């Protein structure tokens, strides 16, 4: 993990960078997703109007650059995305650790069944499968799964 990376709460001024990370990460890590229909401006508006208002959001910052973000709604990890070039440097773990500090009773999330890398990441961090879904509960209509982390569950 990089000693230079720090986690801080996101602010409105971060919205354009969070939107860019969201779009780039999904395109790089999940090429099986349907083509993105929203442009950067629309995703930035969604970050401002929905993500930052409904979730607690943190960003990982190295130097002056935001490398990734995580958004927590109650005990549901709604988003954890990194810039494609920031992957495999421990930054996702730093963000996940911050989210877990704010969810001492446990944490759930949804992941696409096809997303083997994300599934492996969460498994390494103690998440277990709660439920398999057929995709009817997500916008992409792709099979997904619900994972859960409970402290001391290992």
General description of the model:
- The chain is 32% helix and 30% strand.
- It is globular, with a radius of gyration of 15 Å.
- The protein has a 7-stranded mixed sheet with strand order 1-2-3-4-5-7-6.
- It contains 4 helices and 7 strands.
- The protein has one domain: 3-Layer(aba) Sandwich (Aminopeptidase), CATH 3.40.630.
- The protein is an alpha+beta fold and 154 residues long.
- The longest helix has 15 residues, at 15-29.
- The model has no long low-confidence stretch (mean pLDDT 92).
- Helix 1 (15-29) packs across helix 2.
- Pfam families: Acetyltransf_7.
- Residues 5-148 form the N-acetyltransferase domain.
- Keywords: Acyltransferase, Ribonucleoprotein, Ribosomal protein, Transferase.
- One of its GO terms (molecular function) is acyltransferase activity, transferring groups other than amino-acyl groups.
Produce the secondary structure layout.
Elements: E1 5-9, H1 15-29, H2 40-54, E2 56-62, E3 65-73, E4 76-82, H3 91-101, E5 107-112, H4 116-124, E6 128-133, E7 144-149
Parallel strand pairs: 4-5
Antiparallel strand pairs: 1-2, 2-3, 3-4, 5-7, 6-7
């Amino acid at each position: 993990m990089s000693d230079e990376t720090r986690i801080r709460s996101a602010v409105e001024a971060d919205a354009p960078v969070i939107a860019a990370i969201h779009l780039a990460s999904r395109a790089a890590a999940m090429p099986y997703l349907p083509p993105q229909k929203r442009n950067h401006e629309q995703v930035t508006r969604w970050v401002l109007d929905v993500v930052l208002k409904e979730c607690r959001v943190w960003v990982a910052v190295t130097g002056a650059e935001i490398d990734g973000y995580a958004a927590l709604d109650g005990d549901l990890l709604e988003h954890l995305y990194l810039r494609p070039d920031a992957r495999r440097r421990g930054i996702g773990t730093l963000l996940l650790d911050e989210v877990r500090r704010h969810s001492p009773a446990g944490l759930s999330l949804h992941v696409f069944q096809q997303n083997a890398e994300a599934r492996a990441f969460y498994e390494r961090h103690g998440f277990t499968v709660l439920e398999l879904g057929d995709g009817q509960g997500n916008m992409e209509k792709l099979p997904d799964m619900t994972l859960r982390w409970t402290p001391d569950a290992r």
